[in-house]
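Saturday, quiet lab. Running sequence design on the structure tokens for the scaffold JK sent over.
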């Protein structure tokens, strides 16, 4: 390879690396922003979905052992597991 060919090749390589680096940083920034938007959207959506009658705070932070098997669910979307 001639001397002027190597300098042209090195300059082209450096330009390509700069272009790829810019693209990588931009893609990472867009990904971070999108993941934050999705987290905010799902966070607000979950809090807004529960009806006010189902927001009981009974036993918050404690373990309550029921004396009988769980009753059928009262609110739509609420799931109870079988007593074992």
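Result came back. Writing it out in full:
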């Amino acid at each position: 390879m001639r001397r002027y060919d190597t300098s042209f090749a090195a300059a082209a390589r450096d330009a390509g690396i700069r272009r790829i680096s810019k693209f990588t940083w931009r893609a990472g920034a867009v990904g971070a922003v999108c993941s934050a938007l999705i987290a905010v959207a799902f966070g607000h959506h979950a809090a807004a979905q529960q009806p006010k009658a189902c927001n009981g705070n009974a036993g918050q932070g404690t373990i309550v052992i029921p004396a009988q098997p769980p009753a059928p669910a009262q609110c739509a979307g609420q799931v109870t597991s079988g007593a074992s």
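Notes for JK: Residues 2 and 42 are 60 Å apart (CA to CA). Helices lie at 3-49. Ask whether to fix the surface positions before the next round.
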